[in-house]
Every structure is written in C-alpha cells, then in structure tokens.
Design a protein that fits this description.
Elements: H1 5-11, H2 13-20, E1 23-27, H3 33-42, E2 47-51, H4 76-83
Parallel strand pairs: 1-2
Helix pairs in contact: 1-2
Length: about 80
C-alpha cells in the first residue's frame, strides 16, 4: 500500500496526477492555512508555497496545527516546512 493510495481511491488517478503537477500558494498558515497546507502536502501535492510573515505565539497554541510550546517564537513558514 502506498502512502497516497487512499487519496487516489477517493479522487481518482487522473485528478491526483493533475493535482501533483500544480503549484499551490497558501497565504496565511494560521488556524485554517496550517491544516490546509498539511492536508495538501499529505495528499501528494509536490509544490506548495507558504506565505506568512508571522511567528508562532503562545496565543496560537489552542487553534493552530504548528503552534506547540517548542515552536513559540519561530517563523510559521519554517515550522511548517520542517513538518513537510
């Protein structure tokens, strides 16, 4: 079983091939963007650009995927890139 097998079953081979060749820009990787980025990367999208000039803050920890005690103060884009 490949890592993307379930995605291929859900979307179909043709759609997955089309998506893999797309370049996706996510502007803002906070409460919604962090989960969107994670889902797209896990679905096999090869080119995802992240745009966010903010750093992880303590107040982000209750709602943002990348906001952990260990990531407070770090650039959000760097934290998300490390997850990928």
């Amino acid at each position: 079983m490949s890592i993307h097998e379930r995605t291929h079953l859900l979307l179909g081979e043709e759609t997955c091939q089309q998506l893999q060749n797309k370049h996706i820009l996510i502007a803002g990787i906070g409460g919604v963007g962090s989960f969107a980025a994670e889902a797209l990367i896990r679905a096999g999208i090869k080119q995802v650009s992240l745009l966010d000039h903010d750093t992880v803050s303590e107040s982000n920890r209750n709602r943002q995927l990348l906001a952990l005690a260990s990531t407070v103060g770090q650039q959000k884009t760097a934290v998300m890139q490390a997850r990928a």
